[in-house]
Specification:
Chains A, B, C: InterPro entries: Cis-CaaD-like, Tautomerase/MIF_sf. Chains A, B, C: This is Putative oxalocrotonate tautomerase. The structure is a homotrimer. Chain A is α/β, with parallel strands linked by helices. Chain A has a domain of about 110 residues: Macrophage Migration Inhibitory Factor, CATH 3.30.429.10. The first copy, chain A, is built from three helices and six strands, in the order E-H-E-E-E-H-E-E-H. Chain A has a four-stranded mixed sheet with strand order 2-1-4-5, with helices on one face. In chain A, helix 1 packs antiparallel against helix 2. The longest helix of chain A has 16 residues. Chain A starts with a strand and ends in a 21-residue tail after the last helix. Chains in contact: A-B, A-C, B-C. At the A-C interface, helix 1, strand 2 and strand 6 of A face strand 3, strand 4, helix 2 and strand 5 of C.
Chain lengths: ~160, ~160, ~160
């Protein structure tokens, strides 16, 4: 959680600009006590000849960001919270989109927290108070901490099903 | 909204075939009074050695399309509407899949309209009548139109949450 | 259904390792009587300079797998079933992640079965007993079998809507 896929024109960002953008994105989540190492950002260069917006191509002035949230989800009626996040996210990325003369579009998806594995473990995303505590430990150390982690039981009979 | 990611064998489509396919996809949405510039199509060439279907690889005769709908969503019981869309979408892409001797697969996801930003704005996707009106203006001009657009209020206290 | 997108450092897997990993993934679904040809695996090499985890980059020791389930979905309360699947999936991929000195993360999304087309047809994913039967035939033959397949009716009036 979260995954940020950034589709952009090749060469748009220098190495240091990528690092700065990633720092800013990651900061949104660490400010909310999520472990930094849960934040994955993948840049995907798209050749102009493969990029079409509004039926028009080739495009070399568009950035399309697809975000997946897993550890935290919005309930359908949490509209203010959703808008608040999008406002904050947009503030973070504008220097790297508008600031570079690009058009841009972002959307966020809500994915099921239980269908998630990090380094072989179900992360403590916050289903219980104990998990909340453990998540803060992971966030503080910025790595998987096995002390206090107990593997959630799986009903063996369920293992053969999809 | 919508985003169309088309995973295909490298070199399958000429520049003019890409343009024609994009025109046909975009037409589905403009016919429904959505602004053309909301439609993003990204072609993603996949090397045969990276493409596996049914356990078999390398593949060079398969097209996999992943579609994300954001402005409009189907309710779980709108089965006829969903089938109608898939039929229409398939009719549009068959010349570019079956017609080129490819196998193909498409699926569409429903994403939350409130978790969406275009050029820094929450698009008028249709939550109110005023938004419907504004969406038609955007569709007609095929660009962001600020006249009549008012930024939806965000509760400031919500901004720090994820 | 399912789609497995595997974002990995370039050159991490040999051709035979890719095949072995795909065989193991595909086996999960065929064991559950799903047709092998429904399983699509796409490897996506990501240059180190485009890969950031926890704010740190360039990364060349991380594998990020995004899975989409379409034919089968978990209901929100089927937690044991979800954990069972993730355990099984992790067991399958660990030799190709942990076993190669990589960190890794996987998540699975649930996508609407009705918004899905394979080779121009709505697959018999199991909405009825007849579909269950037909799915087993497709699984056995490992291809589309038209005998016994009837196109689900679409209300024509719905075709113009999105």
């Amino acid at each position: 959680m979260p995954l940020h896929l950034i589709y952009h024109p090749p060469g748009l960002y220098s190495a240091s600009e990528k690092q700065a953008l990633v720092d800013d994105i990651t900061g949104i989540y660490t400010a909310a006590s999520l472990p930094a190492f849960w934040v994955v950002v993948i840049f995907r260069p798209v050749a102009a000849s493969d990029f079409f917006v509004g039926g028009r191509g080739p495009q070399s002035n568009f950035v399309r960001i697809v975000v997946q949230h897993i550890a935290r989800n919005y309930k359908p009626d949490e509209v203010a919270k959703m808008r608040g996040f999008m406002q904050k996210y947009n503030d973070v990325i504008e220097p790297y989109t508008k600031g570079k003369g690009m058009h841009w579009e972002v959307n966020v998806d809500n994915l099921p927290s239980e269908l998630w594995v990090v380094d072989g473990l179900r992360p403590p995303f916050g289903a219980t108070e104990e998990e909340e505590r453990l998540r803060r430990v992971w966030a503080e150390k910025n790595e998987v901490v096995l002390e206090g982690y107990s593997v959630p039981p799986i009903e063996q009979t369920e293992q053969s099903k999809i």
